[in-house]
Amino acid sequence: MYFIFYFLFLILNITFADTILPLPIEDLRKIEMKYDDTLVQPFPLDTIYLKIYGGNIFWGDINLTRVIDKTIFLNLNGKCEKNRDFSNYLLADGKVNLGWSAREFWHEFAFATNWKKRGQRYYQRMEVYYNPIWFTSKGTFTLKNTVRGASYIDTEQNNFFSGCADLAFNSPSRLGIINSNANIFYQANNRAGDKFLTTTSAGLSDLITIGDNLFIKPGVHYNIEKEILTISSNLGFIISGVTTFIDLQQNVLKTFSFDSLYTDVFPFLVTEDLDYPICDWQCGTTIQWKDFRFSGIYQQFSSYLNWVRAQKDSWIIPELLDSTYSQISLNLAGKWRFLKNYFSVNYTPDTRNLVPRYIISDSILINAGKFEIISDIVVAGKRTWYNRTLPNDILLSSQIGYKWRFVKLFARIENILNNKYEILPNRFDTGSNYFIGLETIK
Q1: What is the pLDDT of residue 305?
Q2: This prediction's pTM
Q3: What are the Cα distances from residue 210, in Å, to 25, 220, 255?
């Protein structure tokens, strides 16, 4: 059950994200599109967050941030989970972040670990990050470093090792912000072998404000290895209290970490010839009026990742197909008095393995004093898997909560109809989940 929720909401979070962050005008230089104009590190505040619940599944999550002398912050995060879907895994992970400022430098160090067990199989990963930022009179240097070590053990051990370094330089000029970027990625795997990738790009973008209600942000970037010229244009304006954004981009590489394709649901084997898919062009708009927001985006890709069956060990191999496909995403959010509603639609007219033709979701939240009622529905269309067609999915869930001081007590039922759908080929949902818990109110 939890996998289908994660799968659907991951898609929704990606495809329904607003194309441009909202105004006010004074924060426009913090807008993050494909490339950053500024890399200002926001300093955190002292916070603590706790969420725990239990029933036929359980979950625990704690996040603590501590600020020391206004120049150092420490963040601790830990989580454990036991689910009850077809993967039936036990998960535990933790992360420590330490950040501090020193003159013109900002440093951030992090260590993360993840452990997941399913039957006699388990997956474990450790990650180390170090991300310094150097502020100079000529511009801002940002270096992101990540080292990962992971292994998946079933009938035999499968080991991953990867390292990634990403150097970016942003410099103001009379023409605008000059952006340059260099990325080095290395992955070693005892089944797929070694893989080494480099990418470099350079470009120019500028933010032009006209009065207090209009901005234009043109940009152009060139990827040297791929020989791809990316052109973008962002427009935002306010008329009679209605804020409108329009986002146009052409030839955008959809990048990701190759070892992130490896999950516990299916062991994904990354082949040596795997490449980045390319979005030929996309057009998006966001319109906001008071507490109501509408956003839509159309994307057309010239290539995409496809999942291919392997002959042994139940492996699925991702491959890049040079086939055109498109997708349309719409999102509507509104608030009226004590009622909030979030409605989303994602439609893909082209057929791809394990990708629903459409996903429709709606969530209603009612605040009645100290009580809170939530009702959710997710409808996913049919999916194809070679010569098979997997059925539609309809998931109904409901939750009731009570707010008391700084905590919220709640009870929730997921998959109320107790349906047992075939989420993936020969992988069936186990039915309803129910639990009670508490959560600190942010």
Answers
A1: 66
A2: 0.76
A3: 10, 21, 33
